[in-house]
């Protein structure tokens, strides 16, 4: 099963031309439902304005915190995953679909230039002051490592020169041939997951931002350094 996740970076518009039959599911984040009409799921946080949410047809579903928090908690919670929707969508797709591959487009989280989003200039959520988002590459490595444990590969379809995702760059045509996950350092993975448990930054309601006074940035940085090394470079 091959899942497409569409974000709101300028290159998200490339997804307009993707052949729908290639995907078992199309997941759009926030405003990205505007990119193509045949999306299956639109996922967004509680503070996403109601007037910007899509009008769905009978086959489409809106995914809010009531759905994604339960899934996210199975993967350790938001503080360790990185509290932005690009990662939340990835974990939700991983838990909901149990896919063989997840492909991202429009989610590089690099905000250079005049147009930061496909609809113009927006407010980049991952740039807000948040200890869980200081090292976006480490958080993407965590997602890929955990996906690999489910025999799922994660790819980046972006052609942009810079990205805060460490996923392999590829094209749609190559994904079926590259569906073997990259190697994961199992020893470091166990150490990282144990450190997460020891830190105790798990909050069942998902509202980690209400507990930021408990967070130790140096310990989070140390954890991120571990995640940086977990996924192989082959």
Q: Overall mean pLDDT score?
A: 92
How many structural domains can be distinguished in the coordinates?
Answer: 1
Give unreliable regions as ranges: none
Class based on secondary structure composition and strand pairing: alpha/beta
- The DSSP helix count reads 6
Q: Topology as H/E string?
A: EEEEHHHEHEEHH
The count of β-strands is 7
Task: Outline the structure in words.
- The chain is of the alpha/beta class and 234 residues long.
- Helices cover 29% and strands 12% of the residues.
- The protein is built from 6 helices and 7 strands; from the N terminus they run ββββαααβαββαα.
- It has helices at residues 65-74, 78-81, 85-97, 136-149, 186-199, 217-230, and strands spanning 2-6, 25-29, 41-43, 61-63, 101-105, 153-156, 168-169.
- The chain has a 7-stranded parallel beta sheet with strand order 4-3-2-1-5-6-7.
- α4 (136-149) links the parallel β5 (101-105) and β6 (153-156).
- The longest helix has 14 residues, at 136-149.
- The chain is globular, with a radius of gyration of 17 Å.
- It starts with a strand and ends with a helix.
- The mean pLDDT is 92.
Structural descriptors:
alpha/beta, seven-stranded parallel β-sheet, 6 helices
Give the structure's gist in a few sentences.
With 234 residues, this protein is of the alpha/beta class. It has helices at residues 65-74, 78-81, 85-97, 136-149, 186-199, 217-230, and strands at 2-6, 25-29, 41-43, 61-63, 101-105, 153-156, 168-169.
